[in-house]
Every structure is written in C-alpha cells, then in structure tokens.
Amino acid sequence: xxxxxxxxxxxxxxxxxxxxxxxxxxxxxxxxxxxxxxxxxxxxxxxxxxxxxxxxxxxxxxxxxxxxxxxxxxxxxxxxxxxxxxxxxxxxxxxxxxxxxxxxxxxxxxxxxxxxxxxxxxxxxxxxxxxxxxxxxxxxxxxxxxxxxxxxxxxxxxxxxxxxxxxxxxxxxxxxxxxxxxxxxxxxxxxxxxxxxxxxxxxxxxxxxxxxxxxxxxxxxxxxxxxxxx
Length: 230
Ligand code: SF4
Ligand code: SF4
Ligand code: FES
Description:
Elements: E1 2-10, E2 19-27, H1 34-44, E3 64-67, E4 70-73, H2 80-83, E5 87-91, E6 98-100, E7 103-104, H3 107-115, H4 130-136, H5 143-147, H6 160-170, H7 175-190, H8 198-202, H9 209-222
Parallel strand pairs: 1-5
Antiparallel strand pairs: 1-2, 3-4, 3-5, 6-7
The structure holds iron/sulfur cluster (2 copies) and FE2/S2 (inorganic) cluster.
C-alpha cells in the first residue's frame, strides 16, 4: 500500500494567485505513478486538478511538470520514490505561461520550430542514420527548456528541443537546402548554448544530447557534414 501527501500548486486561471493544496492519497497499486495518482485524485475532487496527458506511456511529452522541483513526466514518475519522505510536490513548468493548475502553454516551442523552419518540405530519407533516430525520439516536452539557464520565452535561443529537429534535418536534406538550417542553427542554438549539458541529465527520452551537440557544432563551425555519417 502506498500512502502519500500530494502537494499541488493550484490556480484556476492565469490571473489567479497560485496556492499550495495538500491531498492525502492512498493506493494499493505498487506500480502507481504521478499520472495515475492525479487521475484517482480527480475522481474525488469537486474541482479536479487540471493537467495534460495523452499517451500515458512516456511517448507524447504532454504530462511534463515539476515534481519535487525537477521537470519530469508524470506518467514516468513512480510514487514509490516518495514514500519514504511521505510527500511529493507537484507544480507546473515555470518557463511557460500557466493556463490553470498544471497546464502550461508551450506554444513557444512550436513557434521556435517555425522561426527556424525546421520541417521537411517534401519526402526525405534519413538513410537509417543513428543521429536521425536519436533526434527523432524528442517528445517536445520542454523539460530541457525548463532546466536550461539560457532559455527564456521570447529570447533568440531556441534550446535543445529545436536542436533535436535541426540534427534530424541535417542528416536528410540535400546540401543546397542545408544552408538556411546552418544559419538558423548558428543564431538560435550554437551562439546561445553554454554546453553545460544540464539538459542531458533531465531529458525523459534519454536522448544522447551531447552527441547531437558534437555533431551539429562540427557542422556549424567547420561547415562539414556529420563526421560519422554520409
Ligand atoms: S530534448 Fe528531451 S527534454 Fe528536450 S524536448 Fe526533447 S525529449 Fe523533451
Ligand atoms: S547544454 Fe546547457 S545551455 Fe545548452 S541547451 Fe543544454 S542546458 Fe541549455
Ligand atoms: S502522457 Fe504522454 S508522456 Fe506522459
């Protein structure tokens, strides 16, 4: 049996002053996670906690939130971790505007992808490249942006979530089309990234961010193709 106090930072609208609320929670399910706890809790509340989820399988990134001050996926965070302490604090990501309770507006993530023109205009082959595979596992959850000291909404630096898509495009686009992506990478990633790799430790998809950085920096600085791929 898991017995815990869930402390949740709540507000009903963006203008509201947030307030910590504490809920007693108990479940016989040893495999329970933060997502299942929120679902259970909401069955008992007149004013359910607002939060986002879709896959509940660590695949969509929708349930990213701060759990004991760390950006994590609710569906991938076991309650067992917190049993000893007896309490867990849950709040919305701080780098994005809060809509209500644990829901944030992550539009900036997609706006940055549009600014950098990070999409395939037509069918492109990734040639089975390991870099493309690694980069395509990005959930666009925003956890890396939350932890990054250099990212803020409205700034030039687009962060690691844009880096992953840049890396993927660079493995597939014809040389002529890469020029614009090089420029965007220089301005929106290379010049802003302090390379501390704090984002690597936090990425819930476990993406090898350091390897993507090494490859893309090589492209940006020496204008070479990825060293390990043709
Ligand atoms: S790089 Fe990792 S932390 Fe960042 S958006 Fe992608 S999956 Fe999330
Ligand atoms: S390496 Fe550091 S500065 Fe660069 S994106 Fe990751 S956390 Fe931000
Ligand atoms: S609900 Fe999709 S990653 Fe958690």
